[in-house]
Amino acid sequence: MYSRINNDESSVGGLILAAGLSTRMGQSKPLTKFLDKKLIDQTIKTMQEAGIDNIQIVTGFEHERVEAYLQDNYSSDHIHTIWNPNYGNGSILTSIKTGLAELTDYELVFIQLVDLPCIMSKTYQKLLEAMLVNGKKAVLPTVNGRRGHPALIRMDLLADILAYEGSAGGGGLRGFWKQLGDAMIELPVDDRGCIMDTDTKEQLQEVEAKIQAACDRAGRKREDVTLIAVSKTKPVEMLQEAYDLGVRVFGENKVQELTAKYEVLPKDIHWHLIGHLQTNKVKYIIDKAELIHSVDSLKLAETIEKEAAKHDLIADILVEVNVAEEESKFGLKMEEVIPFVENVSKMSHIRVRGLMTIAPFVENPEENRKIFADLHKLYVDIKDKNIDNGTASILSMGMTNDYEVAIEEGATMVRIGTGIFGARNYAI
Fold this sequence. Notes:
The protein has helices spanning about 35-50, 65-75, 90-100, 120-135, 160-165, 175-180, 200-220, 235-245, 255-265, 280-285, 300-310, 335-345, 370-385, 405-410, 420, and strands at about 10-15, 55-60, 80-85, 110-115, 140-145, 145, 150-155, 185-190, 225-230, 250, 270-275, 290-295, 315-320, 350-355, 395, 415. It is α/β, with parallel strands linked by helices. The strands form two sheets. Strands 1, 2, 3, 4, 5, 6, 7 and 8 form an eight-stranded mixed β-sheet that branches.
């Protein structure tokens, strides 16, 4: 798509800054606790969909395992990983300089912070169009007046960027953009962050069509699958738009977001708490969340039991299962689930409604089919044992990247966020 710019031989490169990785990584900690592979994968995928033909990933954390991990997972003919040994001196700015120095064959380069992901290739396309139409040296998306990512620059700025010293506190190229003045243009986007022209109605229709197609392939009825619109970090206005389109089940990751939105949105919404739940926050959502998806310890179950008793209600829960046994994820191991369910079923104010899992993020959803099939088998075993008087009827599995496969393997609930609302709106 971008192999020729203005009919010359120049092309577009991409620079991904592996920021947001903790510098406090200890030798004993798993890399997945600090390296969000999902964000890196998604950023690479979007750049490649946009036709960006050479991608540099820069990291500078003073830990050889980070460098080795990125080299092992992200090295190819078109993706290269660079370690910035001067990361601690200027932080993001020195990584930008290190990466750009490797992209001198390119006329234009997109600069993307990995923890400010952009998931739609049209964003890159619109920035490029604005650059070519206006003949400027840099184009930045802005959200409510704040500059975001990705940034697009002409590489004839390289000498100026390399000479730019930044501020004592780092901050990347913030001061540099100000210096450009009229040589830079800002391209306003909406409050959905990096996403441009996201049409919630269109996205929702597409998700619904895919759910129906997956049900058809599996010989299931559409009403057998509940769509949970995952609205974490999204503003109330976007939820209201989805509500007006007929969505009634919303999932939130954080207690504070759920409680805040609960107060201002229509009362016929069914709220699900899908993220990790701390025991000290149970009291805030016990009478608001109709279903808690993430119960994975007796301590948490006991806290839910106590708070439910105070409100004289029965709390519906799902048991979170870490089928893939990923170190970065919460959840019980498969063999722990039945004994756990048997214990929890003795509690008088809790009802175990089924199981939930978060499968690994993979490029090919088929790689998660066995994960989903294994959890479905366990789910059937629990139903057959008639634990908790047969109340288990929910299998929550499948997200934007793999929900069709999950439905084919028996999911009764799918959790879709990005597919409906676009990428998360990270702080800019």
